[in-house]
Amino acid sequence: MTLPEFVENLAELIGRPTDLRPFVCQGSPLRCNVFLVGFNPATEMAGDFWDHWKTGVGFAKAAWFQAYLADRRTRPLRPGKKSRPAVSNTRRCLGWIEEGADGAPILETNIFARASATKAELALKDQSSEPFRFLIKAIEPKLIVAHGADAHVAVDRLNTSAQIIKIPHLSRGWSKERARQFGRSLATGKF
Hints:
By secondary structure, the chain is an alpha/beta fold. The protein is 37% helix and 14% strand. Helix 1 runs antiparallel to helix 4 (130-139).
């Protein structure tokens, strides 16, 4: 599949514009042999996914990350909350893993592309795994790393030749060094 074909097929599936977040990566998703898979994005963003797509190049992760930071800074706090970290625990850990992977192409994705602050807040109508299944079929990753029990259950149902690794959720229990070491193992293929 070519990058223009990928974009056309994805746009037909998720719409254009869209507030869904089917994935995050640097450059062409077609180069990504490793998928880091969670349940769904936790940070809702005001912008359009396609604002960060560059024709002929792919996804502009650095620009997306700046929008992510701005959204987290300006979004009203939930009732009872006095502050919010600039970056979620999961996003911070993803960054450490990618630092350890040292440029190896990794695609961050989720079983469901709709963001919600909690699993319970993800409406049943938004629990479509079609974008995720499209990514698996279109890219054919060699390795799928599922983090968290919900992602573990979902990847068990996949029909894929990819190697599957199940790890604890990235939102808790990961040190910077452990995450970076895991990223190094993803880059070298030695887990």
